[in-house]
Design brief:
It contains 18 helices and 13 strands. It is globular and about 105 Å long. About 5% of the residues have low confidence. The protein binds S-adenosylmethionine (SAM).
Length: about 400
């Protein structure tokens, strides 16, 4: 092959390659993909990266199609949809136990969250960030016995100065629900206590819980005026950054909530390890605390049994070895023995917390109840209720008398 023919060959191969690449990009352009589904499927299987949409595209696409987004459904449609999701996820036994009316009322409350974030610039984004379907549905179903009991509590309670403390609140879905659900003339405020909130008046950092849904501003009157979400929750939501394991926090909470005319009700949902003990201690030590509902979560880590032989809830003591267990959560993955191994210890742990709760039995009414709210087969279904005398009969009437 002489020199000239070789160059011709190279040029013709290059031409062929460019024709192929041009036609390939023409066929796979997003606007034409629907016309060439076969190419996309076959080539896509071999070279998936060519067809992968960016995660932003995917999220954008998914959200605009989600029944929760403002563009895809009206409020009525959203309410029906979220009711269906809650009922389906809860299953017929829970719907029968709590009644469909409770599910309807909760759906109306979540629809009001959605309405709240619709107006104002940037609020649609805020709603998109806040409303994670799986998270909201799971947290609400796991809180059903609490919402049910609080509803009944306020049927009888006629003092108008109750403050609810939501310990380890996370973003505060339970408090947000109760703000919409409970009679606002009877509840003064909900205090969301968590160590992951930013400090008061501080600029939130990436590792903090974002509090825009509580304190964020939005504009009204065509951008003329600024308003704050803080002022439009039916029962005000306040955040409080506190480390419940620190002795000074317990002292401060006692100072802050003692000696006022406030009656305190403590909610403690999904408290990991020794945080459950702290919740019970706070309930005992805070004179103004009238009620406590505790739903314990993970067991205390092995480190406690190496440090001390006994846990104490005031005068009640129990061996750490009975309840401490290996394993921990890392990036939402469980690292440790299969979780079902821990079921027996979890029941022992709940039993000890219950004993610790009722040590002054003459003064405190308590109940340990199993409600199968973990619909995916989980075993953390224990709820511990406590109320100091005088107790509220309407609440105790609706708390099921059912233990393991
Ligand atoms: C499992 S989440 C529970 C959130 C929410 N209550 C729920 O039901 O989903 C645990 C929360 O406890 C908070 N937390 C962990 N240790 C804490 C501590 N020492 N003091 C206060 N909050 C703590 C975390 O920041 C997190 O938001």
């Amino acid at each position: 092959m002489n020199h000239k023919r070789l160059i011709d060959r190279i040029y013709s191969v290059k031409l062929l390659l460019s024709i192929f690449s041009l036609s390939f990009s023409w066929c796979t352009h997003p606007f034409r993909r629907h016309a060439f589904p076969l190419q996309e499927r076959t080539i896509g299987r071999t070279f998936p990266c060519l067809f992968q949409k960016s995660s932003r595209d995917i999220k954008k696409g998914r959200w605009s199609k989600s029944p929760a987004s403002y563009t895809s459904s009206s409020d009525d449609e959203f309410k029906k949809w979220i009711y269906g999701e809650l009922v389906e996820e809860a299953g017929s036994a829970l719907v029968e136990e709590f009644g469909s009316d409770l599910f309807h009322k909760i759906s109306a409350c979540i629809t009001r969250w959605r309405q709240r974030y619709r107006d104002g610039d940037g609020s649609a984004l805020l709603w998109k960030r806040l409303f994670k379907r799986d998270r909201v549905v799971k947290e609400i179903i796991e809180s059903l016995p609490i919402v049910h009991a609080m509803d009944a509590y306020f049927l009888e309670k006629n003092n108008h100065n109750v403050t609810i403390i939501d310990l380890c609140s996370g973003k505060g879905y339970l408090s947000m629900l109760l703000s919409e659900y409970l009679p606002h003339e009877k509840v003064r405020k909900l205090v969301l206590v968590d160590k992951a909130w930013p400090m008061c008046f501080a600029e939130p950092r990436p590792h903090h819980i974002n509090w825009d849904h509580i304190y964020g501003n939005y504009t009204i009157d065509n951008g003329e005026k600024e308003a704050s979400y803080f002022s439009i929750w039916p029962i005000p939501l306040h955040t409080s950054k506190q480390d419940l394991k620190s002795p000074s926090t317990m002292r401060q909470l006692k100072i802050r909530f003692s000696g006022t005319d406030e009656a305190i009700f403590i909610l403690a949902v999904h408290l990991c390890g020794t945080l459950s003990i702290q919740a019970v201690k706070l309930f005992h030590e805070l004179e103004s605390a009238q009620g406590l509902i505790l739903k314990p979560c993970c067991l205390p880590g092995m480190v406690h049994s190496k440090r001390q032989p006994t846990f104490h809830i005031d005068k009640y003591g129990f061996p750490t070895a009975d309840v401490c267990a290996p394993g921990y959560w890392k990036n939402k993955e469980w690292e440790g023995p299969p979780r079902w191994h821990l079921e027996k210890k979890f029941h022992i742990w709940s039993h000890h917390l219950h004993q610790g709760m009722k040590q002054d039995a003459s003064n405190i009414q308590t109940r340990l109840v199993e409600v199968p709210v973990q619909t995916n087969g989980g075993f953390q279904n224990t709820f511990l209720f406590a109320e100091k005398q005088p107790t509220t009969s309407t609440m105790w009437e609706v708390i099921p008398d059912r233990a393991k």
